[in-house]
Design goal:
Largest interface: A-B, 48 and 48 residues
CATH topology of the largest domain in chain A: Alpha/beta knot
Number of helices of chain A: 8
Order of helices and strands of chain A: EEHEEEEHEHEEHEEHEHEHH
Strand content of chain A: 15-25%
Radius of gyration of chain A: 20 Å
Oligomer: homodimer
Helix content of chain A: 25-40%
Largest sheet of chain A: 8 strands, parallel
Number of domains of chain A: 2
Structural class of chain A: alpha/beta
Distance between the termini of chain A: 19 Å
Chain lengths: 266, 266
């Protein structure tokens, strides 16, 4: 048994296929983190996942300043399907957008799609930075996948190319909207599929909200439902988190517990 | 009508009593913000609230670099009772604790109580900074109150002095816990009072979670219910937000819409 009780094994996202005996190359940032920040050395355990093959216990082999290898030992958790939830969000300023990527990852979204809306002030995003933040959050929260961060696109284009079976919940502070809880409760009552085969997305606007005529246009397609999140005007990133947390609680995997293998990492 | 359509009236938290004709002194930071950041001048409208007298439209009178006065005109929204929800949280590092104060304010908590737990690494909080962040969030989100930020205390002391009628939901990743949604759903079904007379609190632990024997002790009192938030290990501040959002959605004011007077501010 390579695991050392007093130091939880670091959890790393890799891209290579995982199978017993495979030697997995580590990225320079990962090698630096393990060696310099966590002070790990050859022979110590790490946990690896790649979004496809589950989570594996592995043993650090070579570990240099900017490179390293881990040899895969045994599977700890099989890959399982996750709720199919996306987040469409208008990028917000400064570190708030990083925060959206981190929290949406913890709250289990599969896709992060930044969109440009009429009142968007922030009109570019650093995809590498958002992806890195999402990968880090996935490593920490025990997920078996890392969300895909898609390139920024116009909201109009995102809706034009929408697959009709994916339901889109638009967080709307103005205009007509029913509470998110009511909408999801009705879906549950009418027996909507709550498994990973059911496809959903949440959309939040920029700090200034949606323009009135933009909202009129936006809620017209049959796959769109405008939803409310209570009487306070939430910041864009707060609305995203609240909607994702409520969706997971009522419709996603909020009823599950952290797997024992994950809790051991606490 | 003093309101100017193209520039929403800034919303300020003050401590003085609000009534028609009252001249309200502004703090130096508020005067600076209005004059230098927002470039407002005498004669322009502001909205004032103090947590007791509702929200009032007022007109800037004198406005200097570090002082100013606003004269109260008319009441826009009466004071109404808010859901009685507290957040007990182990302070986390850096700006994450500010973030907790901001987001918990947007999500409608009345009291922010920092607590020291067995595994707390951060053992002090800057109350002035947290209070300022909470006031700013309250101004922005349209609340009629600002949460009270209480001094840091030991979790054991907080529980020793607990009023038995306030239910405490402990977010627990390890140990036995039922999903928050299930617990709140049962409360609704058994007809629990969901109005402001019903008292609740959410507790989240530090980054390392609760110690095992601490959790054993913590869940013993009859007012405590351990709850789960799904299969991923949430960061402390994410757990706080998710639990508050779900509570408001299922048990608090999540079914309400922003008042028209608030939506006008978008």
């Amino acid at each position: 048994m390579v695991e050392i009780e007093s130091k939880p094994a670091p959890r790393l996202y890799v891209t290579a296929p995982l199978a017993a005996g495979a030697a997995i190359p580590l990225e320079s940032g990962q090698a630096h983190y393990l060696r310099t920040v966590l002070r790990r050395s050859a022979g110590e355990p790490v946990l690896l996942f790649n979004g496809r093959d589950g989570e594996w216990l592995a043993e650090l082999d070579a570990l240099g300043k900017a490179s390293g290898t881990a040899v895969v030992r045994q599977c700890r958790r099989p890959q399982v399907p996750e709720p199919d939830l996306w987040l469409l969000f208008a990028p917000v300023k400064g570190d708030r957008v990083d925060f959206v990527a981190e929290k949406a990852t913890e709250l289990g979204v599969l896709v992060l799609q930044p969109v440009l809306t009429r009142r968007s002030v922030v009109r570019r995003v650093n995809l590498d930075r958002l992806s890195a933040r999402a990968a880090e959050a996935a490593e920490q929260c025990g997920r078996l996948t890392v969300p895909t961060v898609r390139p920024l696109m116009r909201l109009t284009d995102a809706l034009d190319g929408w697959e009709a079976k994916r339901r889109l919940l638009v967080c709307a502070e103005a205009g007509e909207a029913r509470p998110l809880t009511t909408v999801l409760g009705e879906e549950r009552e009418r027996g909507a599929d709550r498994g990973p085969a059911s496809s959903w997305a949440v959309l939040v606007g920029p700090e200034g909200g949606f323009a009135a005529d933009e909202l009129d246009w936006l809620i017209r397609p049959p796959f769109v439902t405008p939803v409310g999140l209570g009487p306070r005007l939430l910041r864009s990133e707060t609305a995203a988190l609240a909607a994702l947390a409520i969706w997971q609680a009522l419709f996603g995997d909020g009823g599950e517990r952290p797997p024992v293998a994950v809790r051991d990492q606490i």
